[in-house]
Amino acid sequence: MQKQFSMSIQLIKKAVKAFSANSELQPDILYIEGYLMGLGVALQPPLPSEWLEHLFGHYTLEHAKQLEAVMDFYTLCFRRMVRDENTLPKQCVVSKTDPQDSLSAGKPLPLYCMGMLRALTWINTEHINAEQRQQLQWLKEILRGFTSYEQAKKEFEDDCGDFTKVLLKQRRMIPTYVANTAYAMRFADDMVEVLGEYGITDEEMLEQAHEVFNDMLEEVLDRDDEAAIAEFDSLVKRFEENMITPDFRTENMGVFWKMHETRPYMMLRAKRAHLNLCYGNADKAAEELQDLLKLNPNDNQGNRYLLLNCFIVMQDWAQLRDCLGQFSEYSTFTQAAHALMLYATEGDTSHSREAKKALKDRNSHFQMIATGQKKAKPCLDTYTPGSEEEVDYYLEAGGKKAWLSVEGSLFWLRQK
Hints:
Blueprint: H1 9-21, H2 29-41, H3 48-56, H4 64-82, H5 99-102, H6 108-120, H7 130-145, H8 149-156, H9 163-197, H10 203-222, H11 228-242, H12 246-252, H13 263-278, H14 282-295, H15 303-314, H16 317-327, H17 332-346, H18 350-362, H19 366-370, H20 388-405, H21 409-414
Helix pairs in contact: 1-4, 2-4, 2-6, 6-7, 7-8, 7-9, 9-10, 11-13, 13-14, 14-15, 15-16, 15-17, 15-20, 16-17, 17-18, 17-20
């Protein structure tokens, strides 16, 4: 399971704007989005402590939720970059009737491009190969061209024909340049090395292999079939052989989610745990989730919810009680685990009925959706506590499997 956000994207952006307003540089939200997408291009992006100051300057933290929103926004942008979803915000347009105004100071497109350009300054060109430098240069050129109308004239005026048409064409090309550069930064070295071991050096074959490898990664992240577990095993093993060494784990224990370079590793392992639970390996899933919670005790991914349901499927009530005590959290997820545990261990008692009532009070949609009497609104990237989407996320996070594992529990849930 990928991390689900407690706020909608609109509320996340609102909180990010509030954070920016209390900072030294006070960047615009579109500048911020361009910057965060630019970080996703980098081969070895900086730590949050570094880029936060680079982007905002000195800042005053009035509410922890605002900083959390900045990190959530960063995660959303990173996820888009991994999925090759590089479309610019809808406000970043070039007007057909007045392109000069579209590129004036403070307009959306220049702000976004300037933000991405600033993020790209983190890339040390001495540490990348010729292909990567070329892609990076082309990306910087097209971004610079949209920072002002004067700059656009310098970068694009050599093209023949109507200059407005040239601008519109170049604007449509920005996502392609971003994708090409991100691809080169991530996979060029690895693929050349791996294919070289098999004697493959032909440029056309290398290009085809690049495309296959990139598609494979995206497909694996989206797969839910049992055979995908082997793919995740292979990818996780590669991380652990090349970066996540025992010494690296020891040095960075507890901060894995704060590090950009380890987030894909955390995502892969969380998804693998989810698949293991789905396909009858609850013990493997629980072991993996417990390790992920050591690497990231703050649990921004929500792995603790999947772990609770693993223990229910395993009928490991002792560990479930320990976890509920450690989490000290009152939510739909913990209340559902508590109620289901009481029914499984005590049956229909006043104690279990009290817990069931508390669950229904916590989320009024829970009974109807969990028992199949009502179809939930699908949860995408966000949900609001107490909403239908929250129940949908709970069921996807092993909740459905947990209730089905306790005989008679769904019938009991429907009773008053």
